[in-house]
Amino acid sequence: MERLLSISSYVTERGFVAYSAPDRSFNASGLDLLASRTRRLEGRTDLKLTARFDSTEGLLVPLQVDEGRGLLFPNTFRGLKNRTLVICSPEYPPFTKYQHEHPNSTVHVSGMIVEVLSFLSSRMKFRYSVKNSFDGQWGAPVAGSRFLTGCVGEVQRGIADIGVNIFTQTSARIQAVQFSVPLFEDVSSALLPMPPIEEKLWNFVGPFSAQVWILLLVALLFGSSLTWLIAYFNPFSLWNLGLNYALIDEVSYKEYIWSFIGSLLQQGQDFYPFAIS
């Protein structure tokens, strides 16, 4: 707010707003719309008259026109106004391939990066020239200096506006420049020989050792037997109470075996032990 100019120069004391309740009509005259405008990111903010209310038509008439369209807010991004951007991009086929390099490090280049730049320039209304870094580097820390080498250092110094290529994000580079959303992501991996294909009947037991299978079997038999005994000798079970709607499944050991197998395999089951409670 300290950089905002005073609004007093726009006070005309000629505007009014009126509303008639009986006929529900709205009337306004001499109403102006002011919008803030910042010419540079850190520059001074001023106010600009952008629209005026027409009481006869009942419309807000824009006073600023950009490409045939009324503009109410000057700070709205409308492209880079055909500005020429200096792009630093080392040669890295197939993303960038130098066709010809001039003595001032400006290059004629082809590749995927050029296609991306051409698309962005048509949408954001800018021109660009591609150059190689003066030292031919990508961007590495320099002892005793806050500036990096290569394209990263040129973006730091303002020699290049943008660096576009397959730049690896390192801690030093992240502290020096700001990275955009990745255009391309690459991963590193190790190559291993293909394991032999084994077609055996008992391959399904391979994921677990013999000890694990034995413990699973013991847990299955012990858990199902314990719950079956509790249900079988429970005097309050529906079967033992002799109720008409009691089910034999309540005291059937087979149902408890299948219930535990379904629980271990996370497949669910039709019967759940309900006499334990």
Task: Please supply descriptive tags for the structure shown above.
single chain, 277 residues, alpha+beta, D-Maltodextrin-Binding Protein, domain 2, 3 domains, three-stranded antiparallel beta sheet, three-stranded parallel beta sheet, 21% strand, disordered N terminus
Give the amount of beta strand, in percent.
Answer: 15-25%
Distance between the first and last residues' Cα: 70 Å
Major β-sheet annotation: 3 strands, antiparallel
What helical percentage do the residues reach? Answer: 10-25%
Structural class based on helices, strands and sheet pairing: alpha+beta
Q: Helices and strands, in N-to-C order?
A: EEEEEEEEEEHEHEHHHH
**Strands across the major sheet, in which order?**
3-4-5
The CATH topology of the largest domain is given as D-Maltodextrin-Binding Protein, domain 2
Q: Shape from CA axes?
A: flat
CATH class of the largest domain: Alpha Beta
The Rg value, from CA coordinates, equals: 38 Å
CATH architecture of the largest domain: 3-Layer(aba) Sandwich
Q: What integer is the average pLDDT?
A: 81
Helix count from the secondary structure assignment: 6
- What is the name of the CATH superfamily of the largest domain? Periplasmic binding protein-like II
The domain count comes to 3
Name the poorly predicted regions. Answer: 1-6
How many DSSP E strands? 12
Organism: Macrostomum lignano
Domain Ionotropic glutamate receptor L-glutamate and glycine-binding: 84-192
Keywords: Cell membrane, Glycoprotein, Ion channel, Ion transport, Ligand-gated ion channel, Membrane, Receptor, Transmembrane, Transmembrane helix, Transport
Transmembrane segments: 212-233
